[in-house]
Design a protein that fits this description.
Blueprint: H1 8-19, E1 24-27, E2 29-37, E3 46-50, H2 53-59, E4 61-62, E5 67-71, E6 75-76, E7 83-89, E8 107-110, E9 116-117, E10 123-130, E11 135-139, H3 147-150, E12 162-169, E13 207-212, H4 220-223, E14 224-229, E15 232-237, H5 241-254, H6 272-308, H7 321-395
Parallel strand pairs: 1-13
Antiparallel strand pairs: 2-3, 4-9, 5-11, 6-7, 7-8, 10-12, 12-13, 14-15
Length: about 400
């Protein structure tokens, strides 16, 4: 879990462990929010990063450094309290054909990365969790920006990004020359024999490893709710984060036979279609927001330059009538642009809320209405049949 600054000797140990048939589960992270380290004095802590660079290269996997996934469809919260990089993954993000993720309903994926996978010959990659197409990689320096701020420069690339994968097949050693030399040792030549276990260059039979591009999902703050009940702390899972981790351990330790018998997580049925529709509807506002932001920035720069031409306070310089007219025009333009920008954001929230409202109305109101109309129709039909059955008797 989060092997930051891992050394070649440690990677070699993992490499040989996998080649001997060992089961590896690795949670790596390009931006470990819950493992932040203090940088410059007085500045906020900086998230750390971790990877398995040598092993990933040998397997055909890469994890872009200092890049986290932003996803409009799986974003958490709304407005200034929302975040495009704290993802609330629902069932559409999971591989429903894999026993490991088939019963997972929700995962909180905070400030995680995404893999780039081109497996080498002999290996196959299976995606277990993925982003939506309305996603992009965001620089980690902007990882904690609010949704409103992040939307200004949000440009989805239309690609699905693997968040968790399983690599399987015949693994080859990432260290063909043998054990890497110990920097502290006098002899810097690689050691192919090792101290106790001979070097392996390939697995004897197929093996698999599980890789997740986020370690923050395992933190208590992301995975559980801690409640105080009569002086005792009660730990309640708030999503499927821990269920996913435990499922991985069980699968590699006991095989697939028992994994399907475990209860995964609370049955949470999010409005997945609504979230997708909201993401598509929001795209039309991206260009408007960016254009207005650019126009506001340019107009503000011109306004500052024009105001600066007045000279220092107390100077005798006086603006001409044309300059005063231009200055008033720029000020009016800034005010108008800010007003339009505010209106666009308001309409975006309004359309999103309206879509969710009417979808809920249709889902809640239509089924009872259909049942009621069906019942009324059956009652009228029975009444008509009863009247038809009584008519001949009355005629006699």
């Amino acid at each position: 879990i989060h092997p930051r600054n891992i050394q070649p000797q440690a990677e070699y140990a993992l490499d040989q462990f996998v080649l001997r048939g060992g089961k590896l589960i690795a949670f790596v992270d390009p931006y470990g929010y819950f493992d932040a380290q203090q940088g410059i004095p007085g500045a906020p802590p900086i998230g750390t990063s971790s990877s398995l660079p040598t092993l990933f290269k040998a397997w055909g996997v890469s994890l872009p450094d200092n890049k986290v996934v932003g996803d409009l469809e799986f974003r958490s919260g709304e407005g200034q309290r929302g975040s495009l990089t704290v993802l609330s993954l629902n069932r559409t993000a999971f591989n429903r054909d894999d026993v490991l993720t088939s019963q997972i309903e929700s995962i909180l994926y905070p400030w995680g990365g995404a893999f780039e996978v081109k497996p080498v010959e002999g290996l196959q990659a299976q995606t277990l969790m993925q982003s939506s197409t309305n996603s992009m990689l965001i620089d980690s320096s902007k990882a904690t920006a609010s949704a409103d701020d992040a939307l200004k420069r949000f440009l989805p690339d239309g690609k699905i990004k693997p968040l968790a994968i399983r690599l399987s097949g015949l693994f080859k050693s990432a260290f063909p020359e043998g054990r890497p030399a110990d920097p502290a040792a006098k002899d810097k030549t690689p050691d192919k024999t090792g101290t106790s276990v001979p070097h392996r260059s390939q697995t004897e039979k197929e093996n698999s490893v599980l890789l997740v591009a986020d370690m923050d999902l395992l933190a208590d703050a992301a995975a559980v709710d801690v409640q105080d009940l009569f002086g005792q702390k009660i730990i309640v899972p708030s999503n499927g984060n821990l269920a996913l981790a435990l499922g991985m351990v069980e699968q590699v330790a006991s095989g697939d036979a028992l994994i399907s018998l475990r209860s995964r997580a609370a049955a949470f049925r999010p409005l997945t279609v609504v979230r997708a529709l909201e993401a598509e509807a929001a795209k039309q506002y991206f260009g408007k927001i960016r254009a207005l932001e650019d126009a506001l920035q340019k107009t503000s720069a011109k306004l500052l330059a024009l105001e600066g031409s007045k000279g220092t306070p107390g100077s005798a310089q006086i603006l001409s009538a044309e300059q005063q007219t231009e200055l008033a025009k720029f000020r009016k333009g800034v005010a108008q642009t800010r007003k339009e920008l505010k209106a666009v954001r308001k309409n975006l929230r309004k359309d999103s809320e309206s879509l969710a409202f009417w979808t809920k109305v249709v889902n809640i109101a239509v089924p009872p209405l259909v049942v009621a109309l069906f019942g009324l129709g059956v009652a009228l039909l029975r009444r008509r049949r009863a009247q038809q059955g009584l008519a001949p008797t009355g005629a006699r």
